[in-house]
TrEMBL record:
Regions that span the bilayer: 64-82, 126-147
Top-level taxon of the source organism: Bacteria
Localization per record: Cell membrane
HAMAP family linked: LspA
Family as reported in the entry's similarity comment: Belongs to the peptidase A8 family.
Name the UniProt record assigns to this protein: Lipoprotein signal peptidase
Gene designation per UniProt: lspA
Amino acid sequence: MKHKGYYLLFLGLVLTDQFTKQIFMSSFDLGQSIVVNPFLSWTYLQNTGAAFSFLAGGGMMQKSFLLVVSILVSIWIVIWTQKTSSIYRQKLTGQFLLLSGAVGNLIDRAQYGFVIDFIDVHVNSFYWPVFNIADSLIFLGVALLIFERKSTSK
């Protein structure tokens, strides 16, 4: 299998994401928040929409649409990674972080119809939208892909 080590990374990251979400689902009441420090709280929320709750509150059609988009994006990322040479480590790492986050949220969407969020970052009265590990992986993957160093070998 091409990129075996990256697929092991993918598996570990998806399992970590799902494990943390299960902790919050089983230990917190919906909406419950615990302050960790002045900048971080654990807040259990269920996001029925996409990023930043975009399209949240829609019915079954919206949930189905987001599920299908998640599946198609995940398939596209797998195909993209298979076309990427092993010499492009930063690109592959970004692709697999992106895939790990997409699949982590896809599992939630398929199983529950919503994504489990729990990381609540805030400074004074500014609150960032609550997110999860999968969202962080997507962000990091995209950042690695945007700032990918071009190969200088000829």
